[in-house]
Write a structure and sequence with these properties.
Helix content is 38%, strand content 27%. With 240 residues, the protein is α/β, with parallel strands linked by helices.
Length: 240
């Protein structure tokens, strides 16, 4: 089910390694058996090191077994928020069961500037407006349950990440995003500086979605990201 999700993450990591001009530190933060981190270690080429973490001890034992034979991998059994305050990374992957909200604060603070944060959300019913009160509590945003609900959900998720990053004078550049099956997935580059944060926040707004509902009345949704959902330049970036 998550094969395409991991395929894309490998492509993103390969792009980051190719363009970094330095050794890239990678975190698979909520790894379970470590499938994503192991695929990165096995398939990506270049100078990088992978940290695979899961707080569950049984999962951690699987990680240790599955990473035998790799010299560019280490395993941890910690709360990912604690780990993120001990070590910093160029690429952080947050792929929880349910909402990623409890992990975003630590992640946006501790991704090395110009690094990439990858986030999966499986609470799609919340982001798509089935449970609007839950969306307001978790993401501080009003969703829209209509035929554009998946795009609105993606934009709410990105907007939330942007607002959390701005608290620490960091802006976001959306590299890629998609809504597939039971989850939403976004990749953002973190840019350091108050001006970067201010420029990003200009793209987070509350909008009137009256044209996208079945009822002809004012319908405010958001705040959500109104900027681009993808950076097409990624497709054409050559090795640095």
């Amino acid at each position: 089910t998550m094969e395409m999700n991991r395929d894309i993450s490998i492509l993103m990591v390969q792009w980051l390694v190719d363009t970094a001009n330095k050794s890239v530190k990678i975190l698979d933060g909520l790894a379970a058996s470590g499938a994503r981190g192991i695929r990165i270690a096995n398939e990506v080429e270049g100078d990088f090191f992978v940290t695979i973490n899961d707080w569950n001890k049984k999962a951690f034992n699987f990680i240790l077994r599955n990473t035998k034979g790799f010299d560019n991998v280490e395993g941890f059994c910690e709360n990912v928020n604690c780990l993120l305050h001990k070590k910093r990374f160029h690429y952080v992957d947050i792929d929880p069961f349910g909402t990623p909200v409890p992990y975003i604060d630590a992640a946006v603070k501790n991704v090395i500037p110009s690094g990439v944060l990858a986030v999966t959300a499986t609470d799609t019913a919340t982001l798509c407006g089935v449970y609007p009160k839950t969306c307001i509590r978790r993401y501080g945003a009003m969703p829209l349950h209509s035929w554009i609900k998946h795009e609105v959900g993606l934009r709410i998720l990105i907007g939330y990440i942007c607002r959390e990053a701005a608290k620490y004078d960091r802006g976001v550049e959306v590299l890629f995003s998609h809504s597939t099956d039971h989850y939403m997935r976004v990749y953002v580059r973190l840019r350091k500086g108050a001006e970067e944060a201010n420029e990003s926040l200009k793209k987070v707004k509350t909008v009137d979605a009256v044209d996208f509902t079945y009822e002809n009345r004012k319908t405010e949704v958001g705040p959500l990201w109104v900027g681009k959902l993808h950076n097409s330049c990624l497709l054409y970036t050559s090795d640095a």
